[in-house]
Structure formats: structure tokens, C-alpha cells
Amino acid sequence: MKAAYVPKTKFSDKTANDLTQAAIRSIQLLFEDSFATRLSSTGTYRQDVGRFVPSQQRKGLPDIFGVVEGLAVFIEIKMPGDRLSADQVQTITELRAAGAWVLIASNYEDVYNSLTVDFREHIFNHYALGRTLPES
Questions:
Q1: Which of 110, 119, 128, 136 is 20 to 30 A distant from 80 in Cα terms?
Q2: Which residue has the higher pLDDT, 89 or 135?
Q3: How much of the chain is in helix, strand and coil states, percent to nearest 5?
Q4: What's the CA angle centered on 77, arms 72 and 78, to 5 degrees?
Q5: Has UniProt tagged this entry with the keyword Manganese (predicted)?
Q6: Sheet containing 35-38: order of strands
């Protein structure tokens, strides 16, 4: 199901970085007391050892991690023409099997519609099954 409309915003989805920032900010604006951040799998240059050190993060994690109403939210940004890697397919499958909500988005309309319709339905279904909100 799609939202009735997508509001005009200052967000851009022309680049992956723009869309990532728009998705993070949308989670924060649409859901009170939510958390969202970019996951960075790039390594760092270590001056003390004089070389680039790879990230310790698992390969294939989506670009964005969030928590909304006690539920894990992941968003993978894939611009038109990009494809999921085998590691990404495997990780997304495992995240969904563990109960996380995962979106693969290529534009702002995907993000907005999925958060306002599909994810809200996911929240309802999760708690309608008798699960309770986590304790603070």
C-alpha cells in the first residue's frame, strides 16, 4: 500500500549520501523518541601502525540502523543500477528472520511510503501479537 501522497521536502535523493541523510532524518521526524544512524563499514587509517585498518563491522550490514518503538529498523540505500552483494542478501535475510524490519530504498518516495505505511503496519502487527514495548 502506498501513502496518499509524499509531501514536498527539502530532502534530496539525487545521490546515495543525500538519500541516506534524508532517510535518517525522516525516521527522526516521523517517529517520536526514535534513534537512527548511518552504519559505516569503512576502515580507518591508523597512524600508529602506518596503515589502513579494515572495519570490524560485519560485511553486508545495511547503510542505516534505527530503533523505533523498540523495533529494529534497517535501510539499505541502492541507487538505480546498483545491486545487492551476496553478503548484503545474506545479512538482510538473517536480519528479517530475527524480526528486524529491512527496507531497500532507491528514492525518497520509497523511504517515505515504506515508513509511513509498511513500517507502521509492522509496528501494529508486532504489538497486536501480544508483544509489549520494552522497559525503559
A1: 119
A2: 89
A3: 35, 20, 45
A4: 140
A5: no
A6: 35-38, 64-68, 71-77, 101-105
Backbone phi, then psi, for 41, in 5-degree steps? Answer: -100, 5
> Is-contact 133 22, C-beta < 8 A?
no
Domain boundaries, the chain: 16-128
Alpha carbons 111 and 124: distance in angstroms, whole number: 18
Q: Which CATH number fits domain 16-128: 3.40.1350.10, 3.40.50.300, 3.30.230.70, 3.40.50.720?
A: 3.40.1350.10
User: What residues contact 132, with CB distance under 8 A and at least 6 apart?
Assistant: none
Residue 111: which H helix or E strand, with range?
helix 108-113
Q: So what's the pLDDT on residue 2?
A: 55
- Sign, CA dihedral 39-65-111-105, equals positive
pLDDT digits (tens, 9 = 90+) for 2-24: 555 555 567 788 899 999 999 99
Q: How many residues does the chain have?
A: 136
